[in-house]
Design goal:
Shape: globular
Bound molecules: adenosine monophosphate
Structural class: alpha/beta
CATH architecture of the largest domain: 3-Layer(aba) Sandwich
CATH topology of the largest domain: Rossmann fold
Largest sheet: 6 strands, parallel
Strand content: 15-25%
CATH superfamily of the largest domain: HUPs
Oligomer: single chain
Length: about 425
């Protein structure tokens, strides 16, 4: 049996259908066993940029077929999926390339293995790095993971440079994804980067602990910062650009313009953190201007923040597509957060009660309960019984305006904040109620 890697690409709609059909057909071939597959990447066309964008993916197979036979099977699959070969880099329903075949190096009239440009193509390197970072490129004599880690990552310190660099990429037709963060990166942030990596040609993140969103008695000074580790994690996740400004470059001494998403900022966390969302909306508006991205990525974990940013971008006509992604959790359900590092062992153990209270709410709703007050009371009881947490609030609101509701109907947000010692944690869940 030989291990081989196959690259798949499609840029004729429906692209996803062609990729999935090709995968099914590969899996059905005698002598080929599918072993793993990467994510699907949406990529800028190579060479002729007038043609449509591609979806690309990589699969690992085990095969008893020789490389020439494997190739002829792939060509047959291409044909059954309507591929007409129109010269190099032309549009195609499906393109199937052998990237690696064991450690063989083959160059003849029909076949070139390893694929001669595989190491220059981001989607190949990202895809292979996901499924097989230890695979060796036999010509470069390098592990795929090492080729991946050799990619350049640019660190930009000033708004002016960030804007001009990202603008120039956009002008070249590159799709830019942007993930704003306050650093101290964890799996929650990295899930946003991973999604951005799949949907864009260039991924930028910002690392900036924004003083404007911390109250005078909050943890601005204490907030964890670890740029060296963040750089490593970002690079491993395939980030292209880190925007890492100094505070003085973001807020001049005479800074006097703020963005306030009225109404929607008032309830939930806004009630207890006056000025917080004004600081958030302001810095995000600034970041959207500094990094003119196509797509931006935020976590559902900060639900009110996500609603406010969507509202702000709509109200101020900021042309960006906002993507809200699910909350990443630790094994016991606690939402991953930079602030979890503050927790003592006991607090950390207890903190899982927050997620459990959200599950309890879901159960109650499933059981027919529709009265918000009853659900909130049961959640509070459960948290108080099982932890030393001080609940700041538990609220059930509609997802249109984030206003408290008495009776659950349609889409609702259940949100909460609680202190474990000095550490304030938040969590939430969006539920569709029939
Ligand atoms: P922060 O660095 O805390 O400002 O977070 C930066 C982005 O990561 C925000 O969009 C957060 O909502 C998102 N984020 C933080 N924690 C998580 C998590 N556990 N799951 C998903 N996204 C998260």
């Amino acid at each position: 049996m030989n291990k081989a890697y196959i690259g798949l690409g499609s840029n004729i709609f429906p692209r996803k259908f062609f990729i999935e059909s090709a995968l099914r057909k590969i899996a059905l071939e005698k002598g080929i066993t599918l072993k793993g597959r990467s994510s699907v990447y949406d990529t800028h066309p190579i060479g002729n940029s007038l043609q449509g964008r591609y979806l690309n993916s990589v699969v690992e197979v085990e095969t008893s077929l020789g490389p020439h036979e494997l190739l002829s099977r792939l060509l047959r699959i291409e044909k059954t999926l309507g591929r007409v070969r129109q010269g190099k880099n032309g549009p195609r329903t499906i393109d199937l390339d052998i990237l690696l075949y064991g450690d063989r190096v083959i160059r003849d009239n029909n076949i070139a293995i390893p694929h001669p440009r595989m190491h220059e193509r981001d989607f190949v390197i990202f895809g292979m790095n996901e499924i097989s970072p230890m695979a060796i490129h036999p010509v470069l004599n390098m592990a795929i993971g090492d080729i991946h880690n050799k990619r350049q990552m640019k660190i930009i310190r000033t708004p002016r440079e960030a804007h001009s660099y990202v603008s120039s990429l956009r002008q070249k037709g590159r799709r830019v994804g942007f993930v704003p963060t306050m650093g101290c990166l964890h799996e929650g942030h990295l899930s946003l980067v991973k999604k951005a990596r799949c949907e864009n040609d260039v991924v930028a993140i910002s690392i900036f602990v924004n003083p404007a969103q911390f109250g005078p008695r909050e943890d601005y000074k204490r907030y964890p910062r670890n740029f060296i580790e963040d750089k490593k994690l970002a690079k491993r996740a395939g980030v292209d650009i880190i925007f890492y400004p100094d505070t003085k470059n973001m807020y001049t001494p005479t800074h006097s313009t703020y963005v306030d998403a009225e109404d929607i900022s008032e309830n939930l966390c806004g009630r207890f953190r006056p000025g917080h969302f004004r600081g958030v909306a302001t810095v995000i508006a600034k970041l959207f201007n500094i990094i003119p991205a196509d797509n931006v990525y935020f976590g559902q974990k900060d639900a009110q923040q996500a609603f406010i940013i969507k509202r702000m971008a709509r109200d101020l006509n900021i042309p960006v597509n906002i993507r809200i992604l699910p909350t990443v959790r630790e094994k016991d359900g606690l939402a991953t957060s930079s602030r979890n590092a503050y927790l003592s062992k006991k607090e950390r153990r207890e903190a899982a009660v927050l997620f459990k209270s959200l599950l309890l709410a879901k159960d109650l709703i499933r059981g027919g309960e529709r009265r918000a007050a009853n659900i909130i009371k049961r959640m509070k009881d459960s948290i108080n019984k099982n932890s030393s947490a001080k609940i700041e609030y538990i609220a059930i609101v509609d997802t249109a305006g984030l206003k408290d509701i008495k009776t659950l109907k349609g889409e609702v947000l259940i949100a909460l904040a609680a202190y474990f010692g000095k550490t304030r944690l938040i969590d939430n869940s969006i539920i569709k109620v029939k």
